[in-house]
Amino acid sequence: MAIQQIDFTKVVDDDQVYNHMMANYDQLGKDWIGHQWKWMNAVYQAFKDHYKYMIIISLVEKTLQFYDQMNIKLSYEQFYSKSYLHIEKFNIAELCEKLQLPKETVRRKVLELEKLGVLKRMRKQIIIDRRSFSFIKPENQMKYTSRYIIQIAEILSKEKLYSKKLDTKFVETTIKKNFSLTWRWFYRMQIPMVIGYHEMFDDLTTFHVWGTVCMNQAFNYSSTLNKLNSHKNDNNFMNSYRDNSNYLDFQRKLFKGDYMKFNESIIKGDKARSNGVSAMSVSDMTGIPRATVIRKCKFLIKNNYLKLNEKKQYILTGFNVQRVLPYQKLIFKNKAKFIRKVLNLLTIS
Predict the structure, then answer these.
(1) Residues contacting residue 34 through CB under 8 Å, at least 6 positions apart
(2) DSSP character at residue 105
(3) Long-range contacts (CB closer than 8 Å, 24 or more residues apart) made by 30-34
(4) Is the pTM of this model over 0.85?
(5) Residue 222 dihedral angles phi and psi, to the nearest 5°
(6) pLDDT digits (tens, 9 = 90+) for 66-79
(7) Does residue 254 surpass a pLDDT of 50?
(8) Rounded Cα gap, residues 143 and 52, in angstroms
C-alpha cells in the first residue's frame, strides 16, 4: 500500500486563516452572517424549539467523536443510510455541561423528545429515531459552508498561502466523502459558538431574533457598499452620497475593511439605520411566532441590543460594538480551526 506524502509547505495554520479572515471581513461578513442565520433557521425548524435540536446534534457529535477515535470514516450516504442512530453511554450531566443548561431543562427536553418518539432509551444507551421527525439533512448547509470555505481559500490564495484550486462541487464532494469527520468538525465549531450566544442573550430564540435584525442590516450595508464600489468613478452617482455616512465610508476607502470596520459600518450607516425590519418580517423569515418575536425584541431593546428607527422598525445599537464584537472575535478562533482543517483536507484530497 502506497503511503501518501504530504507537502507541509502547502498546508495552512489556524492563525493564518483567522488573521486573513478578520482582515478581509468586508468580503466575508455578509456571507458569514447569512451562513449562520440559515443554520439557526434549520435548528429551529426541526422541532420549533432550538434546544431540542441542540440536544440531538450534541448526541450526534458524541457518536461522530467515537467514530473518529475508532478510525471509522463514514460518507454522507453511509451515515444517513439507517433510520436509527445509537448513542453510547447517554448521560444527562454530560449534556448539561456541553450545552450549559440546567439539569431540569435538559431532562424536560429529553422527555419531550422521548414522547415525540425521537429518542428511545435502552438501558444506558439511547437511540435517535430519524423517522419520528422531519430530520434535516445538511444538504443545503454543506453548499453554504462550501461556498464560504472557497471565499477564504481565494483570500489566502491572493496572499500565496494556499495553492489548491477549488470549486464548489469538489469541496462538497470532499465533505460528503469524509462526512463523519468533517461534520464533527462543523459541530465542534457550531455548538460552542451558539451556546455562547445563549449565555449572552439569555436564550437562543432571543439570539435568533437579534441575528435576523443583524442579517437584514448587514445585507442593506453590503448592498450600498457594492453600489459604491461599482460606481466609484461615477461622479454624479457619488455626489448623491456626499451627505451620507456611507459616502464617508467610501472616502475612507472602507472597501478594504477589517472585522471591526465592517461591523461598525453596519451599525452606523444611514441606509442600514433607515431600513430596519418589523416584528412581522422577523416572524415570517424565521417561523418564530410574532408574539414571541415582539417579546424578545422588548428584551433586546431593554438591554440595549436593539432600538426602533423612525419607521418603528428594529435596528442594531452601538452597544453591539462593545458587547458582541469582542466576544465574536474570540469564538471565531473555532471557526478558523474548522476552516483550516477542511482546507488542509482538501489539499491532500
Answers:
(1) 144, 215, 218, 219
(2) H
(3) 30/218, 30/219, 30/221, 30/222, 31/147, 31/148, 31/151, 32/148, 33/211, 33/214, 33/215, 33/218, 34/144, 34/215, 34/218, 34/219
(4) yes
(5) -65, -35
(6) 999 999 999 999 99
(7) no
(8) 24
The predicted structure's pLDDT at residue 226: 63
Using N-to-C axis directions, what is the helix angle for 25-47 and 259-268, rounded to 10°?
70
The amino acid at 267:
I
Distance CA(310)–CA(101), nearest Å, equals 38
User: In this structure, is the dihedral angle defined by the CA atoms of residues 24, 220, 212 and 317, taken in order, positive or negative?
Assistant: positive
Q: In a 10 Å sphere around its CB, with 0-12 CB exposed, 13-18 middle and 19+ buried, how is residue 192 labelled? A: middle
Amino acid found at 69: Q
Output phi, psi for 247, to 5 deg: -65, -40
What are φ and ψ of residue 86, in 5° steps?
-85, 130
The set of cell numbers assigned to 11 is 498546508
Q: List Cβ<8 Å contacts ≥24 apart for 101-106.
A: 101/51, 105/51, 106/55
Residue from 307, 309, 284, 312 nearest 297 by CA: 307
- Cell, residue 81: 443510510
Residue 80, CB-side half-sphere exposure with 13 Å CA sphere: 12
DSSP H or E segment with residue 126: strand 125-129
* Residue 125 Cα distances to 86, 100, 122, 290, angstroms: 7, 22, 5, 39
Q: What is the pLDDT of residues 40-68, one digit of tens each?
A: 999 999 999 999 999 999 999 999 999 99
Give 230's pLDDT tier (boundaries 50, 70, 90): low
Chain length of the chain? 349
